[in-house]
Structure formats: structure tokens, C-alpha cells
Amino acid sequence: MSGDESTASSVDTRHDCSCYPDSDGDIYSRYKSRAMNEESQRFFKEALKFLIDDVINLLRRQILLIREIETKKFKQDADVTSYLDAFEIIAEQIIGQPDMANEYHKMGGFAIFPPCFRCTNSKIRAASLNLMAQICENVAYCNQIVISSDLFHLILKLLEEEKDLKVANEALNTIAIVLRNNSQAYKTFVLQKGFEVMLGLLQKDDDKLRSKTAFNLMTICRAETGAKNQMVLSDYLPILVTLISQQPKPSHEQVLKLLVMITKNNNKAIEQLKQPKYRMQDVLLECWQAAKNLPNYEEMEEHCLDLMSILNLPEIT
């Protein structure tokens, strides 16, 4: 090996940046990237805070507008468009945003509901119930506020007294959402005579409302083991039997299904329905024959047969 070659090979290149042409560039790039990230984070945090503040201010303006309702009396044909728009704006900012729904309550947003529930204009009553349903859906914090405050009682009272069917449907939907998978809400529902209110709905002369009420009662039965006995105690059976004794309507299917659900594996219900005054053999036979002669009533036929089997009545031949 020549001297020059030996010298060249013995040179310590460990700290020679020229051996790593991209080294300085990498260090600079990493430093610049970190600085940019920190700057970006600050920017996004400030932008997010601005957006949240903007939404909160928007919600506050809608709350102030809607609270005017408390001091006004509206005729049914009054123009309430600005208030209905305010309900929609609030809903748009809250749907799918649990944190924003919680924030809405903390800024006093729930104070709009009592005067809206009492409003003489049915559109405002319906819109306020619809908004509450959207706020409470899947938001445990808001559900708890409704249950622990007077709001749940107000909705039940409205549901009991409401003459406008659209408003009654909105109230029923709100109750169903608050009750969903919520044992605490169910206890409050029972204590505040919720079953009695629902029984009154079944007797209203509106077939769609009756079907929806029966459906929601079945949902409660599936979720709460004591619900079936509670309905027996609340005198549901004679009312349900009276309903299925009438001329067949689309709601008969849901009413019969509810009757089957209450009675199945329930000795108290079976014992009561076997009393001669209910004439269950005749009622179910007439119901079955009527369904058999009508199109699209196949499930009603099946429910009649199911109930006959549960009550151990003679089979239809």
C-alpha cells in the first residue's frame, strides 16, 4: 500500500459531515418540521377555539330568540317561521355532537322547553319536542337532566292532554328516546303514571298513534322485566281486548302483538283473560275470521292463534 493510500485509508471520517451529504439537511428538515408542527398546532387550536366560540354564540342567539315565546301568545295561523328556523339551527349544531349538546344545557338552553311546551301554537310545541328528542338521543348527560328535572313530567302531561296528533307523536317519540336502555328513566316513568298516560293514548281515535303507542310499549316490555305486570295492574287487558273486538284496523296487529307479549309466561294475565266476562274464545275467533277475509292481515291471524294457544283455548278447526 502506498503512503498516500495509507494516509487516505487512515483518515477518521466518523465526524466528517461530507461523508453524509444529507445529514445537515435531515437535521434542518426535522427541526423545521417540528417547528411547523408546533406552529400548526397553535393555529389549529386557535381556529378550533374560534369555531367553538362561534357556534356557542350562534346557539345563544337562537336561545334568546326562542325565549321571546314565553311572553307571547300565538294564534294557530301565526307566522312562527323565525322560531322554527331557530330550532333547526340549534339541532344542526348539536346532532351527533354530545359535547355540544352538553354545552347547550350548560348555557341555559333547556330553559326554552317549558314555555314552548305550553305555547298555544302547535308548530312550536312540536318543534320543541323534536329538538329535545335530538338533544337527548344517545347523550346520557342530557337524558339525566330531563329525568331529574320537571321536564319529563311536563312531556308526560303534554302527551296526556295534547289534542294535536302531530304534537302527540313528537311527545311519544321523545319519551321513547329518554326511556331507551335507561332503567332510571323507567322508574321515573312508572312513578309519574307513564303507563296510565300510554293507556289513554291507546284509546285515542287515531290508528297510527295507537300503533306507535303499542310498539313503544312492547319496546318497554323487552327492556324492563316488570313492565308486563305493571300493565296488568294498570288495567291494560280490558282495554286491549275491547280494541281487538272492534272492526279490524291496521293497528290491530300491534295491539294483538302487545297482548300476546303481556300474556306470554304471565300467570296473572292468563288468569285474568280466562275470566268469562272477557269471552276470549269468541273475541279471538271473530278477530281471526275477520283477518282471514282481509288482505295483508296474515300476522294478525298468527297473533290470534298464538294468544289462543297461550290461553289454552280450543283450536280453530
TrEMBL record:
One of its GO terms (molecular function) is adenyl-nucleotide exchange factor activity. Coiled coil: none annotated. One of its GO terms (cellular component) is endoplasmic reticulum. This is Uncharacterized protein LOC108744578. It comes from Agrilus planipennis (Emerald ash borer). The gene is LOC108744578.
